[in-house]
Specification:
The chain has 13 helices and twelve strands. By secondary structure, it is of the alpha/beta class. The chain has two domains: about 160 residues, 3-Layer(aba) Sandwich (D-Maltodextrin-Binding Protein, domain 2), CATH 3.40.190; about 130 residues, Periplasmic binding protein-like II (D-Maltodextrin-Binding Protein, domain 2), CATH 3.40.190.10. Strands 1, 2, 3, 4, 5, 6, 7, 8, 9, 10, 11 and 12 form a twelve-stranded mixed beta sheet that branches. Strand 4 and strand 5 form a beta hairpin. Helix 7 runs parallel beside helix 13. The longest helix is centred in the N-terminal third of the chain and has 14 residues. The radius of gyration is 23 Å and the shape is globular. The N and C termini lie far apart (about 70 Å).
């Protein structure tokens, strides 16, 4: 039945225009249809990503097996180097990358340089606000949590929330990463919804003489070695493996701050359909399960990580928050007297 034809002329025109500009998700091509188009582009995907080799070696072959005939060329470097490379290529008049998958902060930088395509990924409909944007979709998450040495922290002392570290019992027992301004920003924006309350808590924590060390792996090793009792800006994915090996550590999963790794598509990519195929697969349940299998914490709310790395309450740092980094970095450094 032609529903539009039964409407008044003006209403029919408006609805027709809406559907032309915002087509229904059901009208989107299937992944298999896009796969066929991708094969006509040469069967190569240029993937600019910071996905660690230990994860990439497990995740990327799943994509290649699912879509025969397409091979991934993984250009592996730090996120800032990948953005700098893409900028240099664009200035030279050529785009070589198809997909960019790096921390959201750097995806925003690439977008500011005019490198990224604005498009809607149908699979992103299942993602909550803050986990997607007009030029990106979350691929996986990294959680800042609290962790502690079980020999140095009594059972009754174990923290249930970040606020617990304001207690004077933690004086001279805490470590943290000096660059983790996201901790302050997330508490201000999402937990307390108040800069004043977040700053007040951190000032109490700072009064406990926090010791700072660069590198989250370093923080984990210090806890394992018993050189510190607890950490409040550790990464959750550092602990399941260590606990399985018998390390005397535990970690808090009641609440956590999530930094986002995001997938985006390059403008004028050499293999646009192949890139779109990867981006849609990555955002789908299928792709997110592959991320979990490969050892990452998936962003999709319906896909659980293999290890317990996702927190119950999630305070996620989104693209709009990143613009406020300078403000919160200044406050963070002032609170802890960091240079």
């Amino acid at each position: 039945m032609n529903v539009i034809g039964k409407l008044s002329g003006r209403t029919a025109f408006a609805l027709g225009l809406f559907l032309a500009v915002f087509p229904l998700v059901s009208q989107a091509e299937t992944l298999d249809e896009i796969h066929k188009k991708g094969l006509k582009e040469g069967g190569t995907l240029n993937f600019y990503g910071t996905l660690a080799q230990i994860n990439a070696e497990r995740i990327l072959p799943i994509f290649e097996k699912r879509f025969p005939g397409i091979k991934i060329n993984h250009v592996d470097a730090t996120s800032d180097k990948l953005v700098a490379r893409a900028v240099a290529e664009a200035r030279g008049g050529k785009t070589l990358g198809d997909v960019l998958q790096i921390p959201l902060e750097n995806v925003v930088q690439a977008h500011d340089q005019g490198l990224l395509l604005e498009t809607t990924i149908p699979e992103s409909a299942e993602y909550p606000v803050g986990m997607k944007g007009p030029f990106w979709v979350s691929s996986d998450l990294q959680f800042f949590i609290a962790a502690w040495n079980t020999k140095l922290v009594k059972k009754e002392e174990e923290p249930k929330e970040f606020d617990d570290f304001a207690d004077p019992r933690w004086k001279d027992r805490l470590i943290a990463e000096p660059r983790d301004l996201e901790f302050l920003l997330a508490l201000a924006k999402y937990k307390f919804k108040s800069d004043e309350k977040a700053v007040a808590l951190l000032k109490k924590i700072a009064a406990n003489n926090v010791e700072f060390h660069k590198g989250h792996s370093q923080l984990a090793e210090l806890l394992v070695a018993g050189q510190a009792a607890a950490c409040f800006t550790c990464y959750s994915h550092h602990y399941p493996r260590r606990i399985k090996k018998g390390a005397p550590v535990n970690y808090m999963l009641t609440e956590g701050i999530a930094s986002i790794n995001a997938t985006a598509l390059f403008k004028n990519a050499p293999h646009p359909n192949t890139g779109l195929l990867f981006a849609r697969w990555m955002a789908s349940l299928e792709g997110q399960k592959a991320m979990a299998t490969g050892g990452r914490t998936p962003a999709h709310p319906k896909v659980e990580p293999v290890d317990k790395t996702r927190t119950q309450k999630i305070y996620a740092i989104s693209a709009n928050d990143i613009k406020e980094f300078p403000k919160y970095e200044k406050i963070w450094k002032e609170i802890f007297k960091l240079r």
